[in-house]
Amino acid sequence: MPAGSSSTARAVRGGQGKPLLSIRDFKVEYRTGAGSTVQAVRGVDLDLYPGESLALVGESGCGKTTFGLGLLRLLPRLGHASGKVIFNRSDGTEIDVLGLDGRDLRQFRWRDAAMVFQGAMNAFNPVLKIRAHMHDTMRAHGRASRQEIENRAAELLRLVRLEPERVLDCYPHELSGGMRQRVLIAMSLLLEPEVLILDEPTTALDILTQRSVVDVLHEVRERLGFSMIFISHDLSLAAELADRVATMYAGRIVETGGVRDLFYRPRHPYTLGLIKAVPPIVGDLPDLESIPGGPPSLAALPPGCTFNPRCKYATEECKETDPPLFPVTDQQGSGHEVACIHWKDVHLDRQVRSEDMGTAS
User: Fold this and answer.
1) Which of 56, 247, 305, 325 could be disulfide-bonded to 337 (CB atoms 3.0-4.6 Å)?
2) Residue environment code for 180-197, b if the CB has 16+ CB neighbours within 10 A, otherwise e
3) Domain ABC transporter spans what residues (predicted)?
4) How confident is the model at residue 6 (pLDDT cuts 50, 70, 90)?
5) What is the pLDDT of residue 280?
6) Can you give the pTM of this predicted structure?
7) Which domains does the chain have, with CATH numbers?
């Protein structure tokens, strides 16, 4: 089963046609010890198209990881996902993800969609060698001979720039952080999923190792053509890896659009604040602006727009209205949407270089 043999044909860019993953009114609630619930993800609507890379950005605690876990039904016991998540397989089959259970759910998780978790060491069984991880994963999801598994594992390890002859016989602790992360990427692709969700895949890695992982993701995605949801608080990495970006705040998507639209022409004050906090790589260092205050408690959200207590554009109307996403009217047809009634007043007042945001062509 050569890597990319069945996948290259689905490497479609640009968000054309039927979405691969259609998400509507997606919510995740956690039950608390007091018998109440906290909504960590609040009514998210998103589409992911074949071959597309979507970055989900925002501060820690905004619901990004919970969103990814909820899509794959990997929430802890007290979590519950609701809404509609439709996965449209390349063979035309339509799957209601939130309605799956048992064997169908297990098959979906690796064959249709897979996740690379934050903190690679925690994703491995420390007493098993990498070879055993590969074999167990393949055998749990289908019939394959030992030699077929060996060939597939070796092929994918080479694809992520690792030597299978060495790595397969290593325990997880014998590999560096960057090597473990690349092994996880290879493992997640064993069964050729059409969607790969990556949760902060470069966290805790030094800058050179981050560069290596990003290069690997570029190469593997170009070769295999899968769609990707990239969860990160690092805007430069998100800009480099994504075709489209969605900004999340307090469990809601507050802005979404093409990578250049969002990073060069942000229209939500929160997205603007995130960008203005990124220092330039070259040239003079401008006065960096931080976003005042901190994210609200999900158990006690402010009325109206949840960003209004931290927003310099906020008015009394913002305390009464929590606007939905709507199109940015001066960019018709761009897919740029924002949840802010003052979006026309929001402008980036300093030039952002492509090198700063990782979008150099």
Assistant:
1) 325
2) bbbbbbbbbbbbbbbbbb
3) 23-275
4) very low
5) 72
6) 0.88
7) 8-242 (3.40.50.300), 248-357 (no CATH)
